[in-house]
Amino acid sequence: MNGRSRRALLIGAVGAIAVFVVLFVLVGARRVVESLLTARPSLVAATFVLALCWLVAWSLMLRTALAALGVDIPFGKSFLVYAGAVFANNVTPFGQAGGEPIAALLISKVSDARYETGLVGIASVDVCNVVPSISLVLISVSYYATTTTVGERLEDAVGAAVALIAVVVAIMLLVWRFQNVIVDRLPSAVSGFVARLGRGQFSPRSIERNLAERLGRFFDNIGHVATDRKRLTAVIGLSLVGWLFQSIALLTAFAALGHSVSPVVVLFVIPLGNLAGAAPLPGGLGGIEAAFVALLVPTTGIAAPVVTAAVLIFRGAIYWMPVLIGGGSMAALGVRVVSR
Fold first, then answer.
1. Fewer CB under 10 Å: which end of the chain, C or N?
2. Which parts of the chain span the membrane according to its record (predicted)?
3. Residue 88 near residue 326 (C-beta atoms within 8 A)
4. Helix orientation angle between 75-91 and 41-68, rounded to the nearest 10 degrees
5. Where are the domains of the chain?
């Protein structure tokens, strides 16, 4: 890990701690601890089991997406690879930027797939997760609005989610529309810079040719996934199953504290709260917890310390358990999160 990576990780960790300090000061740290001490161990354990089911569902997504690209990975290895990707997401700022390249490297190590093929596989999983999440938000918020007045905070959160997803989709469509231009011009534009970084070890022309070939295969692979309707449907279906497991896990975390929450609420709170993962914090740590509390307190009517305790149990299962599993799989597969 180089100095720049250490500084980024340190700054992100300090930022996460600062967010937690502010959160605990606002809701009352002592009352949060008191709520946690009342949790039923059996239901806390059930929350972790449900989180494990979510991890299994989304690792099957990755396996299915790779199958559409002609890459066959046993279920056990696909689980370890996806857990490693989640680990990378959770320990690097701006999560997905760290997780996808690491997952692609893991895929190339456990199979004969090229790096760009693995990158398309994991990117397909992330993109397909958007479809069920925004659908769940729109459907559940619409239903919630028929029974309860939608507050300004929730309106702003939904508006931000729709705007962000619209921007991402627009960028993806533009990249796909102008893929030929990108393949033709991008390699020549960056080859000289890459050659200078390599201190003359590689010629700009060979770098340009290599980049063009890799970009061409990258877009071809995207086309394979997009046109395999059977597997694409399966991927989206598994994504929905994963979101539902997360929702049930949060409901179970509240049940562990003796409270019940409307399933409709958690169906839109989880995707909306995860938008805070775009913050420059390790895996959105701190920011996502604060977003969950901000959304759940007004929509459930439950006291903030209890909500915070439930969120901490839920995030312990969704965030910290995959960190432990993924860190172990990364070590077993011999891949470092940050190169030197």
1. C
2. 7-29, 41-60, 119-145, 157-176, 232-255, 261-279, 291-313, 319-338
3. yes
4. 110
5. 3-151+229-333
d(CA 138, CA 248): 19
pLDDT tens for 110-160 read: 887 788 888 888 888 888 888 888 888 888 888 877 777 666 666 666 666
Q: Which of 1-10, 29-38, 60-69, 266-275 has the highest mean pLDDT?
A: 29-38
CA distances from 286 to 3, 12, 15, 326 (A): 24, 10, 8, 20
* CA dist., res. 131 & res. 168, Å (int): 12
Contact between 321 and 56 (Cβ < 8 Å): no
Nearest to 316 by CA among 256, 240, 233, 266: 256
Query: What are 288-328's pLDDT values in tens digits?
Result: 999 899 889 988 889 999 999 999 999 999 999 998 998 88
- Start-to-end CA span in the chain (Å): 5
| Residues facing 282 on adjacent strands | 93
Contact 55, 80 (CB under 8 A): no
CA angle 49, 260, 257 (to 5 degrees): 65
